[in-house]
Specification:
- By secondary structure, this protein is mainly alpha-helical.
- It is built from 17 helices and four strands.
- A hairpin with a 2-residue loop joins strand 1 and strand 2.
- The longest helix is centred in the middle third of the chain and has 33 residues.
Length: 447
Amino acid sequence: MTDPVIGGAPSYPSLRKSWWPMLLLFLAANLYSIDKAIVGVLAEPIKADLGISDIQMGLLLGLAFTLLSGICGLWLGSLADRGIRRNILAGSIILWSLATAAGGLAPNFASFFVFRALVGLGEGAIAPAALSLLADMFPPARRGRAISGYMIGASVGTALSSIIPGWILSENLHLSIPGYGQVVPWRTTFLLCGMIGPVVGLLFFTIKEPVRHGLKAIETTPSHVKDKLAYLWRQRSVVAPLFGGFTLYYVAFIGVLSWTVPLLMRTFGVGLTSFAGLLGGVALVAGLSGYLFGGFIVDTASHGNPGKRLRLMALLPLIALPCAFAGYAPSVLVAILALATISFATPILNVATNVTIQEIVSNDMRGFSFAFLGVVVAIPAGAGGPFAIAWVTQTLLGDPLRLGQAFLIVGLPCFLLAAACFLLAARAYARTTDDGELARVVQSSRT
């Protein structure tokens, strides 16, 4: 059964039919955020148990997670453009959840690295498939709020990634596994978090794949990778600074997020259980506020005007800037509030970037474009952000207690350069002509 056709084009599913897919997407975002972030939250007990250095921990936080997703990213995006997206989502959730649970049993650095790479591979498929799916579930006027609703799950997951390990460590919870023996609390966290995902993954088989919209954005549909890359190259005056600004911002964001808990523990001499609830609560409030505001501003003040949206995006790195100074705060509370600025700004940036990409490319290359952005971000940001802070701390500064200074050295230039890139993208978009290829694609994306 297909969706009804109105005026010669398929209509969007009704809100009544969209609530169940949205709930599952919300849960998926929640799970990937938890499974991604708990490594950073539990970095100190993992380091102690596996006997590894800050630089090795930086590799687990970054390169391990991005390695396979970076290598396979373009293929995953193309798969989302031509495949059944609900099946892709189901398979990816099951894969990364099982890999998360397996990581809880890893005996050493090498095996943990492999399991984190599999987590990254599974999570590398979700953004292209989920964002492509949302673009066909909701009309343009509601896409910002739809993306916000989906990504609020990530904010909830970020909060839970602090709260759940904090509770497990405070209760000193051990699991006993037949044939393996008793596992320590950090391993218990991985096992429990990984067990939930396969259930959510299987539930994705209950939803209906929506009809694709806006397939005739350009005269020749870019069905091949070379054609899609050629289109992005033709629009490079906008695409290059847009992707470059997002990458620079995420170098700082992923680095800060990965090392937040070690920063607080080392700088203020406190244990995770003493601030896990506060950190999770503040991150949740900031993230929810960011996504609610981001969805509203994208669908109202900047709807229909990518150039205006790009100018808004140039302000967001400046809003997040105080997080780079968190290591100089006089107390844990003030440090957490400084870190909350990036928890607020990042959701708005995510919504604005994703809606902008949905508008400037045709339907059959949305998954590819989201994946291409992921590949561009993977090594410099996903791998480079955590490693850069670890390298600055261990090699340049030579003191593990100077994480706060490393935050500033890495974060400050990244935020300022990201803001400049978004301004360049806005100016480039303003110079495009109303009858040009980009304008035709933007117009088609709104149908």
